[in-house]
Amino acid sequence: MAGWGVPCHWLQDDLLHWAGQPGERFSVISCLFGLHHLDDPDKQRFLERVGGRLAEGGLLLIGDVFREPGEDRQAYVQRYVRRIRQQWTSLGAGSAGSRGGSLDEQRRSGGARRLHRHG
Question: What pTM value is reported for the model?
Answer without folding.
Answer: 0.56
